[in-house]
Amino acid sequence: MKNDPLDWNGDHIHTNFKDMYQHLRNSGYYIEVLGSPFTCFDASQYGMVLLVDPEEEYFPEEVAKLKRDVDNGLSLLVFADWYNVTVMKKAKFYDENTRQWWMPDTGGANIPALNDLLSSWGIALGDRVFEGDFMFGDHDMYYASGTSIARFPKDGIVISHILKDQGEDILGTKSKVTESVPILGIIQSKASEKSGRVAVYGDSNCLDNSHLQKG
């Protein structure tokens, strides 16, 4: 999992992901947080890379290396988040301490950088912000503020649900319900028989217990 550096006991993991980390550890999985570029780890020692709410940029060497890793059996699971420049401008605020206007450098996730990374598999995420409730199997799900899948390979599996355009609410325009918003995509890499899978979900708040129910 690539995110903030973590000590071996998991005491310093980012609070947004601590619930997921603890759940996976309790289920018997070993998790190591990658605090260095993708070029610095031996993928043959791992089964999956988790990208949760990523905000950093990726070097071309990292993009190419991760593609090779997936072709050789590593799986990639991405939990994204919202990204919309107009909404980001709406969220700017005046800091009395610095006497400057501050605007977020990115949305919930750095979708442009993530799209660069996912382009190896023909996958791209959009720039609209969605919210809503839906059923996934027997589970009640809440999509808190996520993105949508804008492009996905035809031979993959894409799951869509009816969601509200939350960005329009934030911007003060009339809210509408958008049918068939693609939020989950899964594909098997075809490079070889041992290739891994790539799965993308547009919202990371589902991993945090505080977001399991509406406030």
UniProtKB/TrEMBL annotation:
Keywords assigned: Hydrolase, Protease, Serine protease
Keyword Transferase: no
Domain MBTPS1 fourth stretches: 1-214
Annotated InterPro entries: MBTPS1_4th (IPR057032), Peptidase_S8_subtilisin-like (IPR050131)
Pfam family membership, one: MBTPS1_4th
Domain of life: Eukaryota
PANTHER family: MEMBRANE-BOUND TRANSCRIPTION FACTOR SITE-1 PROTEASE, PEPTIDASE S8
UniProt name for this protein: MBTPS1 fourth domain-containing protein
Native source organism of the sequence: Timema podura
Lineage: Eukaryota, Metazoa, Ecdysozoa, Arthropoda, Hexapoda
